Every structure is written in structure tokens, then in C-alpha cells.
Amino acid sequence: MTDDLYDRVQAAAKVVRERATLVPQVGLILGSGLGAFAESLEQPTMIDYADIPGFPRSHVHGHKGRLVIGTKHGVRCIAMQGRVHVYEGHSAATAAFPARVHRKLLADGSEGKRCYRDGATPESRNHRVFPRKLSGHPRPARWHTRNST
């Protein structure tokens, strides 16, 4: 990733961290028909995408365009209500930007550790991976936030 992209992800994550009181353990990207789940989160902090620097706006009906941070059954969650698509006219890099910020916030919550069962720190499962050629960005070492402990 370019330094500019890295800095933009950091800036967007900082805005979210300043507004949210909870550090998320689980991340959800909710598409059409699933946005209501985010509204069921307890102790919610809702942040419109328009308030997060660099976040593109979705024009798809039913995608509210906001982050919701709260808890569900005691688990701290961050949910994206809606996402943007390449077919809306966004580049692949622009469409991937919110997911990069989302992932950064989850990595911050893990404090660089990776635990699977007992530690309850974030782990990525069932996510889409864009080939670097498609997203247009290489991946330098400073994007790797995990350590080996």
C-alpha cells in the first residue's frame, strides 16, 4: 500500500476511535437486508460514513452508510451498515477502503496478538481477499500489525 493510503486508513480509524467508547472484537460488513442487525447492538455508537474521512458513500437502496459499534451478548462488535460496490462507479481501491479501516480497528483491538479460543481477540474469517493487482496496491511491512506472540 502506498504511504498515502496507509495515512488515510490511520486517519479514518482515528476518527472512529475518538467517537467510540468500545474497542471491537468482532467485525461485520452488512449488506442488503442485514443492516437491522446493527441496530440490535447494545450501547451503540453510530457514525455516518460522511463523518469518516475517505469513506465513500453507497447509493444502493437499504445501505444506510454508517458504522455501528456496540455489544451483542457481551461481545464488542463493529458493524458496517452498507458497503459500496464497483458497479456503483467506485474503483476497487475505493470500494476496499472501508474494509481496510474496519480491519485496522479490529487489529487495534487485538493489540497485535492473535488468539483463537481463550484470548477472544479478533480473527479474520470468511472475508473476501482482493488480489493486489485488482486493488492496485502492494503490501509493505508496516501494514502487518500482528506480532509472533
Description:
- The protein is an alpha+beta fold.
- The chain has one domain (3-113, 134-142): Nucleoside phosphorylase domain (Rossmann fold), CATH 3.40.50.
- It contains 4 helices and 4 strands; from the N terminus they run αβαβββαα.
- The protein has helices at residues 3-19, 36-39, 92-110, 132-135, and strands at residues 26-30, 42-48, 66-72, 75-81.
- Strands 1-4-3-2 form a 4-stranded mixed beta sheet.
- β3 and β4 form a beta hairpin.
- α1 (3-19) crosses α3.
- The longest helix has 19 residues, at 92-110.
- It is globular and about 35 Å long.
- 26% of the residues are buried.
Domains counted in the coordinates: how many? 1
Percent range of helical residues:
25-40%
- Using only CA atoms, what is the Rg? 15 Å
Strand order of the largest sheet: 1-4-3-2
The ordered string of helix (H) and strand (E) elements is: HEHEEEHH
Strand content: 15-25%
What does the average pLDDT come to?
A: 75
Question: Which CATH class?
Answer: Alpha Beta
By DSSP (H or I, 4+ residues per run), the number of helices equals 4
CATH architecture: 3-Layer(aba) Sandwich
Helix/strand/pairing category:
alpha+beta
Low-confidence stretches: 112-124, 126-136
Distance between the termini: 25 Å
CATH topology: Rossmann fold
In total, the number of strands is 4
C-alpha geometry: globular
Largest sheet: 4 strands, mixed
CATH superfamily: Nucleoside phosphorylase domain
Characteristic key phrases:
149 residues, alpha+beta, Rossmann fold, 4-stranded mixed beta sheet, 4 strands, 17% strand, globular
